[in-house]
Design goal:
235 residues, alpha/beta, Rossmann fold, 7-stranded mixed sheet, 10 helices, globular, Methyltransferase type 12 domain-containing protein
Length: 235
């Protein structure tokens, strides 16, 4: 495990117990942005929203944290398998799922790492492949090699499956509460397009900047952070 990966894991282990409370407002904004156009993410999601989940959708939530994206999309999918680098975040995720009445057959997380050179062996099980939807919420900027990271995610998708990445557009290091965990300062449209295409995820590619920024209090200073959603389908 690299020094960056170790620092990132230790940071999220520390903040996990208070993460949802501390970042309640930005997490709510992220959820609203996702729900605003489910059909943009994937047509099956909007169809399930309209017709009470008729289609089976298997989702992989990587860098899941305590479950912000999973909580937003779970009404529209059949099953969610989630992974995070931090054991403490995984514990918070599973606690929240159980409190909401979801058993592991519907929504569960485990600790693991796909972004390092040596991917976790625990994620080699066949159930961690052939997904309809793979999501990464604000985790790609921790990857030392984003191209390799997205290629690893693409391998988990079935043909025609959707990869959805949310992250910051720029200025991340100066606004982070722990810059030592940041590998990439942000991602523009052309960079994300290249990353997706290199991973054979160029089908239906789109990159959308969310107009209203996320607002964080970083060491007593307000920071407005522009974020984006990018999606592409496995070719």
């Amino acid at each position: 495990m690299s020094e960056l990966t170790t620092r990132t894991r230790e940071y999220y282990d520390r903040v996990a117990p208070t993460y949802s409370e501390k970042f309640h407002e930005p997490l709510g904004h992220i959820a609203s942005a996702l729900k605003a156009d489910l059909g943009w993410v994937g047509p099956k999601l909007s169809e399930n929203a309209a017709h009470a989940g008729r289609q089976s959708i298997k989702m992989f939530d990587y860098a899941c944290g305590d479950g912000a994206i999973s909580k937003t999309l779970r009404p529209y999918v059949s099953k969610i398998l989630a992974v995070d680098l931090s054991d403490s975040m995984v514990a918070e995720y599973n606690k929240a799922a159980q409190a909401a009445g979801y058993g592991p057959e519907k929504m569960t997380a485990q600790q693991g790492d796909l972004f390092s050179d040596e991917a976790s062996q625990s994620l080699s099980d066949p159930e961690y492949f052939n997904f309809d939807l793979v999501t990464v919420g604000f985790g790609l900027h921790h990857a030392e090699t984003p191209v390799q990271a997205v290629q690893r995610l693409a391998e988990r998708l079935k043909k025609g499956g959707v990869c959805l990445i949310l992250d910051f557009a720029s200025g991340l290091r100066e606004s982070s509460s722990d810059p030592s965990t940041i590998a990439v300062d942000g991602f523009g449209r052309e960079e994300m397009k290249r990353i997706f295409e290199d991973a054979d995820l160029g089908g239906g590619f789109d990159y959308v900047i969310i107009e209203e920024p996320l607002i964080y209090d970083i060491r007593g200073t307000r920071r407005d952070m522009q974020f984006f959603m990018a999606r592409g389908e496995r070719i």
